[in-house]
Amino acid sequence: MIKQSTKRTHVWIAGRVQGVFFRAWVMDNARRLGINGWVRNLFDGRVEEVFAGPPSPVDHMVVLCHKGPDHARVETVLDDHSEPAEGLATFEVKSSA
Prior knowledge:
Elements: E1 7-16, H1 22-33, E2 36-41, E3 47-53, H2 55-65, E4 73-80, E5 91-93
Parallel strand pairs: 2-5
Antiparallel strand pairs: 1-3, 1-4, 2-3
């Protein structure tokens, strides 16, 4: 049996990304793509996300985040691929931080 590689990406998105159902949109897309992780609003107005799963769907999710849902206006997307991929079994919306 061949073990599929797992990738983890930590993402911070700035712009008009709160109050536009960004977190629900992220959760729906992540679940559709089979990605685990979490999403939450930050007090500074950004949205923070962690995606873990097969590299191609994780990369696709980051690309989708550059546009976001219809009413969002994404200005910047920062991502970090250096975190270990372990420890995420589902996708969830976390409380604001």
